From TrEMBL:
This is Fumarylacetoacetate hydrolase family protein. Its cofactor is Mg(2+). It comes from Duganella radicis. InterPro entries: FAH, Fumarylacetoacetase-like_C, Fumarylacetoacetase_C_sf. PANTHER family: FUMARYLACETOACETATE HYDROLASE DOMAIN-CONTAINING PROTEIN 2A (PTHR42796:SF4), FUMARYLACETOACETATE HYDROLASE DOMAIN-CONTAINING PROTEIN 2A-RELATED (PTHR42796). SUPFAM superfamilies: FAH.
């Protein structure tokens, strides 16, 4: 496994970016003879990603770097992990996995075994085909204040319908404005695990039924986007569509799927977003979630639950729900 990027701190010190390998992390500023000497924070690293990326790619592939991390790096047991990115903008693509859309359709009305289930399944498959052929991603914004660390606890409070959604997080490394699909992936800096926690009973407003979804109340509260544990540079992910996502609650698998199941792939999402907004370095795109929401399982998160979200090569984040 190649080194990955973490955002860590020790008592009394501000968080700093480091290369992690085999349980030890070495600050990027260790390499003083490179442009990384200026990368004292994740924000600075991502702000100047085109300058830093070639250096990082060389270091991540060099045996000398791994030896340096082992010799000079801090053991992670003495460090605190922080969210690996502090995005200026967060975008979430809704309803972007075929299996999740089919699952929701089958769960509706008379249920998966009801006489109308085949009709709903056929209609959903037709809708998916039409959307892929003629449509575009459905994207909402999520406040940057909702980003939390990969080991943070979340206070449930009076939230009785808090649901999970594991997603691939895409971190932008170069400004993107009205780019085409061919250029889209060159704007990706890194990937990470995100859990787009959602308060289901706040998605729709009972007092304003004709105004549609309320993403502020349902998705933007502080702590509703656990992120990390680390960033995997784009050059380490040969085919994002081959990635497998899985989420467990108290050790039981609730979600499992592959990115190949997306209606609109990562390049398509970046291209679409860039037509309407300027993507900036450090921005985060949450790319959709596979089947297996709490809504399907008939249960939501409650105090005492432990949620583990994992993606191939991107580590596992652990969310503890507390009263």
């Amino acid at each position: 496994m190649h080194p990955v990027l973490v955002n860590i701190s020790r008592p009394g010190l501000a968080p700093f970016p480091a290369l992690l390998h085999n349980g030890h992390a070495l600050a990027l500023t260790h390499w003083q003879d490179t442009a990384l000497r200026q990368a004292g924070s994740m924000a600075l690293l991502l702000q100047h990603w085109p300058d830093h990326a070639p250096v990082l790619e060389r270091l991540c592939g060099a045996p000398d770097s791994i030896a340096a991390i082992a010799r000079h790096g801090l053991p992670m047991t003495g460090c605190q992990l922080h969210a690996p990115v502090a995005p200026g903008q967060v975008y979430c693509t809704i309803g972007n996995y075929r299996d999740q859309l089919l699952e929701a359709a089958l769960d509706a009305d008379d249920g998966p075994s009801g006489p109308l289930a085949p009709q709903r399944q056929a209609a959903t498959l037709a809708m998916i085909a039409t959307r892929q052929r003629e449509g575009a991603p459905y994207v909402c914004m999520k406040g940057s204040a909702c980003v939390a660390g990969p080991e943070d606890a979340f206070s449930i409070g009076d939230l009785s319908t808090l649901d999970w959604e594991i997603e691939i997080g895409v971190v932008i490394g170069r400004s993107a404005w009205r780019i085409d699909r061919e250029a889209a992936m060159s704007h990706v800096a890194c990937y990470c695990v995100v859990n787009d926690l959602t308060v289901r009973d706040r998605v729709f407003r009972a007092d304003l039924p004709k105004l549609g979804t309320d993403w502020l109340q349902s998705k933007a509260r502080p702590g509703l986007l656990p992120t990390g544990p680390w960033l995997v540079p784009a050059w380490q992910v040969a085919d994002p569509a081959a990635l497998t996502l899985s989420l467990r609650v108290n050790g039981v698998i609730m979600q499992q799927g592959r990115a190949a199941d997306m209606l609109f792939d990562i390049a398509g999402q970046i291209t679409y977003l860039s037509q309407y907004t300027r993507l900036e370095p450090g921005d985060l795109i949450c790319t959709g979630s596979p089947a297996g929401f709490g809504t399907h399982h008939g249960r939501y998160l409650r105090a005492g639950d432990v949620v583990e979200a994992s993606i191939d090569g991107m580590g596992t984040q652990t969310l503890r729900c507390v009263p």
